[in-house]
């Protein structure tokens, strides 16, 4: 029948399978192909001859997708344009070995403090403050190995962890005081930046590196939740089965299975994100698309209710943390969908929705800030309030900038890349603030 | 005469920017313009143009827009930005230096 159309659609399908070439790129190439075919048939060639020549001129698909992958290195990262398979499989085995070793190391690390007399039950403060140090250095080692990090960068990262460890353990914290809780909450955030430096191979300013790290963070979170769900099922069955033969497995589960598993899962999850990229890649954007409208709805409903009832936000510690988390989650949703978005696609409905989400989050943030400020002016400074104030302020600036760039993008005044740059530039600020909370707050507030 | 691969790659940016400075265009028309300007000496594999265009877009030297062409198909048009024009001017200076330098030494060789 219409053989030319069939041939073109075959070609299009073939091109789509080369995943370094995105679907919009395929459309662009197809337009090119049709122009070429049109001109050749106009010059007297038969349609199938014209098609053959036009395809040949576009170039061999392998070299084409390699070129595309070079430009769109974020797609190369899907590991689809890779060298010979044989070479890879031996590399895979080595990596698997390293991953298993590091996971074991992380699992053992969490069990070393009891050897020195620190038990989870009695020294919960010690464990809370040091939780990050059992796992984050190991994760950093994994990426340092994988990215072949230089000795100098590695040394700086080690220094960073040591400094963080000194702050966490040399300060005379009051038992279960506010500053101790704050330090425990903020240490992992501060140290996550060190992991990020290792993740991008020490080259923090490389074009796609930081965005890939954001993507990695989101995907690790999803994998971790999945692994944790599986772990929960495993734990449940373990307890149930041993119960049936009147042997209590609770001690083993609580002291070994859960803590060791939770640590090892971080390493395994990271490896899965790296190795099984294309699986999660299809899922994560779907999740953000699912939850962006829902969160928008909730925020709008919240604002409307506040307006209607006139109730102000009640500033309690849990509420403050909750609002910070909510706003961070909004930033996360924006950041994550930005990282998964095709930067060249024109603005669509989803972008408008996300803009509304950002603006409503901005309003909620302003309300929360107002509540904190009035609380501070009434009852004075406490570590919790100051920490919440700082975090809300950082998020406010971030959301304001995001709203501004998103607005410009929707009006087609600025490219999407400008929004990405704004978000990426913020990454170190979160960690810097967290480091400040860990290092300056405790002495400032007498370790209360 | 076929130009070397490196030379083709190096000249791609100024060439594309210069063509876009004449007016907005799309991939196929740019290729045709290159062939026309070079008298057929500069041969690009057609597909290779697009990664170049996408790189220029990422560097914000060009902006893009999908429009419906006269044939009724969606077509991606490229337009040079202000940064693109500045880049073009800078590249032009650099190429002039290269051109003049080569010219001088080759003229000397002819005279000697």
Can you describe what's shown?
The complex is a heterodimer of chains A (about 450) and B (about 110). The longest helix of chain A is centred in the middle third of the chain and has 36 residues, at about 210-245. Chain A has three domains: about 5-75; about 90-275, no CATH class; about 280-448, no CATH class. Chain A starts with a helix and ends with a helix. In chain A, about 35% of the residues are buried. Chain A contains 17 helices and no strands. By secondary structure, chain A is mainly alpha-helical. Helices cover about 80% and strands about 0% of the residues of chain A. With about 110 residues, chain B is α+β, with helices and mostly antiparallel strands. Chain B has one domain (about 5-110): Arc Repressor Mutant, subunit A. Chain B has helices at about 5-20, 25-35, 50-60, 80-110; strands at about 60-70, 75-80. A two-stranded antiparallel sheet of chain B has the order 1-2. In chain B, a hairpin with a 5-residue loop joins strand 1 (about 60-70) and strand 2 (about 75-80). Chain B starts with a helix and ends with a helix. The mean pLDDT of chain B is about 85. The interface between A and B is medium-sized, with 27 and 26 residues.
């Amino acid at each position: 029948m219409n053989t030319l159309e069939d041939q073109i659609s075959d070609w299009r399908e073939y091109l789509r399978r080369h995943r370094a070439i995105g679907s919009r790129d395929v459309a662009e190439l197809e337009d090119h192909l049709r122009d070429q075919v049109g001109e050749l048939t106009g010059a007297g060639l038969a349609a199938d001859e014209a098609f053959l020549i036009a395809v040949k001129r576009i170039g061999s698909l392998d070299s084409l997708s390699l070129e595309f992958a070079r430009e769109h290195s974020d797609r190369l990262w899907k590991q689809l344009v890779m060298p010979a398979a044989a070479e890879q499989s031996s590399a895979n085995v080595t990596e698997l070995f390293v991953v298993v070793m590091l996971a074991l190391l992380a699992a053992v690390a969490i069990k070393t403090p009891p050897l020195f007399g620190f038990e989870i039950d009695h020294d919960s403060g010690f464990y809370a403050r040091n939780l990050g140090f059992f796992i984050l250095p190991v994760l950093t080692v994994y990426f340092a190995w994988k990215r072949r990090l230089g000795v100098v960068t590695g040394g700086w990262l080690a220094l960073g962890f040591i400094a963080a460890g000194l702050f966490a353990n040399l300060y005379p914290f009051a038992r279960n005081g506010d500053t101790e809780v704050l330090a425990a909450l903020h240490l992992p955030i501060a140290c996550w930046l060190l992991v990020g430096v290792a993740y991008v191979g020490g080259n923090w300013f490389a074009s796609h590196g930081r965005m890939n790290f954001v993507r990695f963070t989101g995907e690790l979170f999803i994998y971790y939740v999945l692994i944790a769900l599986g772990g929960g099922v495993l734990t449940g069955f373990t307890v149930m089965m041993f119960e049936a033969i009147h042997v209590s497995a609770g001690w083993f589960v609580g002291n070994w299975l859960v803590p060791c598993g939770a640590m090892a899962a971080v390493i395994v999850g990271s490896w899965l994100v790296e190795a099984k990229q294309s699986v999660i890649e299809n899922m994560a954007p779907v999740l953000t698309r699912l939850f962006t409208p829902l969160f928008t709805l909730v925020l709008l409903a919240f604002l409307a209710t506040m307006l209607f009832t006139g109730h102000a936000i009640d500033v309690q510690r849990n509420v403050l943390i909750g609002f910070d988390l909510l706003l961070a989650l909004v930033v996360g949703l924006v950041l994550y969908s930005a990282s998964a978005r095709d930067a060249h696609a024109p603005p669509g409905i989803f972008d408008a929705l996300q803009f509304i989400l950002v603006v409503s989050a901005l309003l909620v943030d302003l309300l929360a800030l107002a509540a904190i400020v009035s609380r501070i002016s009434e009852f004075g400074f406490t570590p919790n309030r100051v920490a919440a104030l700082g975090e809300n302020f950082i998020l406010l600036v971030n959301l304001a900038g995001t709203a501004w760039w998103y607005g410009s993008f929707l009006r087609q005044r600025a490219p999407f890349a400008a929004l990405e740059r704004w978000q990426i530039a913020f990454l170190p600020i979160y960690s810097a603030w967290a480091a400040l909370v860990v290092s300056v707050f405790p002495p400032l507030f007498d370790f209360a | 005469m076929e130009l070397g691969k490196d030379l083709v790659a190096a000249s791609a940016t100024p060439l594309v920017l210069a063509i876009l400075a004449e007016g907005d265009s799309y991939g196929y028309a740019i290729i045709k313009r290159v062939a026309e300007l070079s008298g057929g000496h500069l041969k690009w594999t057609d597909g290779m143009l697009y990664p170049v265009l996408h790189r220029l877009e990422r560097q914000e030297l060009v902006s893009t827009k999908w429009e419906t062409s006269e044939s009724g198909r969606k077509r991606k048009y490229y337009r040079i930005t202000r940064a693109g024009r500045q880049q073009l001017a800078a590249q032009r200076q650099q190429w002039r230096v290269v051109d003049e330098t080569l010219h001088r030494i080759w003229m000397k060789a002819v005279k000697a």
